[in-house]
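go over this record:
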Amino acid sequence: MMYPSSCDTFVALPPSTEGQRIIFGKNSDRPCDEVQEVLYFPARDYDAGEKVECTYIEIEQAAHTHAVILSRPAWLWGAEMGANEHQVCIGNEAVWGREDADGEEALLGMDLVRLGLERADTAEKAVDIITELLEKYGQGGSCMEDVCGFTYHNSFLISDRKEAWLLETSGKYWAAERVEDGYRNISNQYGITTKIDKEHPGMREYAKSQGWWDGQAQFNFAEVYSFLTTGRIEASGSRYCEGKNLLEKSNGHINAKTMMDILRDKDSGINMEGMFMSTGSMVSVIPTDPALPGVHFFTATPDPERSVFKPFVFVSEIKQLKQTSSPSYGLDDPVKKKPRFRSKPDRKHPLFVKHEVVAAIIETNKDKGRKILHNMRHLEKEKMDEMEKLLSFGIQDSTLLENLFFDSVQEELSVYGKS
């Protein structure tokens, strides 16, 4: 039996970081043949009564949605991770507990990530929005493009310019913890214990009615809502501890490079290989000073060790990210037709196609592979040095950043072309 494990998400806040910055990072661990795309959606206003079609269900649209950059499995509406123009960052994790996750099709955790980013201008507001939607519509449906029905509940790590929130759910019940300094990481297990800053009003009563809590002992969310008997939890437990140790090692000077190195770490299992692998990665650098821009780095390709983290900055005009956009099949998409998932169309975007070829060269030709990796890292370092100026001194001319991610992908493609 393969225990699907998925994802590690990290956040570091002053004083654990270098400078007055918040560093957010996530590896999205998904089936190894799944394509992850990176897409930008501008801010928009909607008329009263408009609806939005999420992965499986339709819900009420908000009057206004913020501009977002998303990294998402190409077959669905939601996202594994992303950020919005207010520098809110969100990543989600699969969690399994006592509550059965095999419910009806509803909102996926990935839909909730996107909805939180589109609708919230602070991390705390994202917690409120996600939990309201969860209570109204529920969570459920297959989280894999497959008839096997891989389902789970979700935990979320959410940050903005001043703090982070950990939100953990079990069915429609949930607890949230505010993180104001230091660092925090989550893997596929409940991590909120006795420090609960917000919660579902019926959460404790429900646990009591199920016989999970006697109403006397101090309430510990992870203890009450988890079951600690499956292989899944054990694998995530070791990744969680490794992740925590890696953060601890750099405590006081965690920066973007530290976070990228953690996401690339194979010994810890954080950079996952095999049937489930790290199919997309994100690192965001958010200065606490609102006058400075946040910079969001995305790979849009699998295995961060063999990928380039490319920068994105929110400015008013942004060029469409065609090279990281997968083909769209509209209403003909097998995900949209019931019964779902009867076939799998080709979802590879242009960058993914080229990256696949290069990954094969790296795998089979040692010398050539070393050279390609050297050039990839060189390009990444150039980009990070350029971004350091923005992060320190702010944006002088926003028109120079309209094509930032697009141009960085072009440069990555030209590195591949030479190989």
